[in-house]
Structure formats: C-alpha cells, structure tokens
Specification:
globular; alpha/beta; 8 strands
Length: about 140
C-alpha cells in the first residue's frame, strides 16, 4: 500500500467529498495488501507529526489538531516504469481486492476519530487542493 499525504488548508474531489484543514491522502493498493496494511497505514497517517506547534516545529498530528482527511483512490501510485515509457500497473491490486481495502483505510481513520471524506473509487475525478507548506510525504507499508 502506498500513500501520498499532503497537508492542506482545503481539498475537494469531484465526484466525492471536501474537507477543510487536514490531509489529502492519495492511496494506492498493491497486490498482496490486506486489512492489516490498511489499518497500520491509517494509524501512521493519523499520528504523523507534520502540523506545526506554537514554536513552528512539526510536532502535531492530525489527531492533535482536529483536522479532516480526504482519501482518494489512485492505483497509478503503483506504476512501474523500469522497462520503458509506458507504465505497468501489474503491481496494483485488482478492483475486487483494492476497493474493500480502500474502504477499510477510510473506516480506520474514522474509527480513530478523524472526520474522513472520500473520492469515488474507480471514478475519473478532479481533485483540487491548497497544499499547506507545501508539505507532501510518501508512505508505504
């Protein structure tokens, strides 16, 4: 499972939801991922200390600052371009495996107390965001 996590002042997926301050999470599910990967990554995202404290240091998490999350499925994060210019997505999980894990990831964030919106799994979406910082991290399980 791979995630691109962006600290945002606001973000929106059309179709899908919108959030105020918090994190936009682009999520790719890999072949072989399971529920434990989704839950572990959700906990990591929720506890990432990438929000500034009063001294301006990265010392607050999404949980600490009461922010929101927008989770957007993005299988292209699993692209392999090692053998030429056309990306291979053979490492990405199939739809029947990926969608439940995407939903499990979003549910795990909600269970941790984070207000969580989602895009529409498998849909062509327009994603708008205002990256705060900018702060962008890549996480992988």
């Amino acid at each position: 499972m791979r995630a691109v996590v962006q600290r945002v002042t606001r973000a929106r997926s059309t179709p899908g939801g919108a959030i105020g301050p918090g994190l936009l999470i682009l999520l790719g599910v890999a072949e072989g991922d399971g529920a434990e990967h989704a839950e572990r990554l959700a906990a990591k995202v929720a506890k990432l200390r990438i929000f500034e404290d009063e001294a301006g240091r990265f010392d607050r998490s999404l949980l600490d600052m009461g922010g929101e999350a927008l989770v957007v499925s993005q299988f292209t994060l699993l692209a392999d371009t090692a053998k030429g210019n056309r990306p291979s997505f053979s490492g990405a999980a199939g739809l029947e495996d990926a969608e439940p894990l995407y939903e499990r990831f979003a549910a795990a964030l909600r269970e941790l107390g984070i207000p969580t919106e989602t895009g529409v799994f498998g849909a062509h979406m327009a994603v708008e965001l205002v990256n705060d910082g900018p702060v962008t991290l890549i996480l992988q399980t």
